[in-house]
Amino acid sequence: MIECYKTGDDGVTKRVEAPEPGCWINVVAPTHDERDWLEAEVGVLPEFVRAALDEEETSHIDYDEDVNQTFVIVDYPSAEDVEEMSAPSMLQYTTLPLSVIFLPEKDFLVTVSLYENLVIEDMARGRVRQVDTRLRTRFLLLLLLRVSQRYLIYLRRIDRLSSKTEAKLYAAMRNEELIQMLSLEKSLVYFSTSLKSDEVTLNKIMHGRVIKLYEDDQELLEDVLIEIHQAMEMCTIYSNTLSGTMDTFASLISNNLNIVMKVLTVITIVMAIPNIIFGFYGMNVDLPIENLPFFNTWVFPTLVAIVACVVAAWIFKKKGMWR
Predict the structure, then answer these.
(1) Of 82-96, 149-163, 301-315, which one has max mean pLDDT?
(2) 140 vs 21, 61, 211, 321, CA distance in Å?
(3) What is the CATH classification number for the domain harbouring 146?
(4) How far is the CA of 200 from the CAs of 52, 237, 260, in angstroms?
(5) How far apart are CA 121 and CA 34, in angstroms?
(6) What DSSP state is assigned to residue 20?
(7) Residue 230: is it exposed, middle or buried by C-beta count within 10 angstroms (0-12/13-18/19+)?
(8) Which of 67, 172, 178, 211 makes the best surface tag, with the fewest CB within 10 Å?
(9) Is residue 16 domain-shared with residue 37, that is, in the same domain?
């Protein structure tokens, strides 16, 4: 999908039918023909197109002097569509690449993403203030600010979801809640790694060597850095908390298993006593059966077995083996 937007003199960003100078070209999950159009008609370098469509590409900034094109790729947070998942409670967050390409020669700004995302949608629908497609640097900084804000939103959701899942685990320890906690822990690892890469990219932009920074953009860039640092701190705190919680529940599971095994062992020992006593009367021996005490009645062996079981159970209870 390819859409073109341009901000007019009235400050309103509207969709246009074809690329114009000062416009923004938004590319989402392009087909093979759309990739060829980007390279042939728009003039984007093929290596930039391949890098933008690589899901494993990390955040970085690149500049090609021959064609005067600047390539910026950042990681944005994404959540699984809960309605399409087989288990709605299993929610996991991940990060995906979002590319921004500057073409000063044609006065174009191109964004490329593998999937539809809320960051681009907010920019296209006018939910972000002061968006001007003619000001490429400001557009990039507003995009990065929206990405950092999306990180903060998802981190707060992760915190609330982990608290709810933890409360369920206290009530009844089930595999579904444990898997959800593990999924959230993995999400925080993805966030932490991507935020560090985005911070490095922002520091390179801040130096102004690759992308020209204007005086009006300095304050906006500082806001982006503040949001990124806040997201990194929140991610570290939540990750440590969730990791400690998982370790605690692992210890509880191990302790509960030990208690169950101890009780089963005590029951096995107590139940083995009657088998031992009655086993004497069931053995094949050379001596006549009359030599066994009380061979002609079942009351005495049964009474001895019961007394022995009660004594053994009392001893184990006194030593706290039943708890």
Answers:
(1) 149-163
(2) 17, 12, 10, 66
(3) 3.30.460.20
(4) 18, 21, 51
(5) 20
(6) -
(7) middle
(8) 172
(9) yes
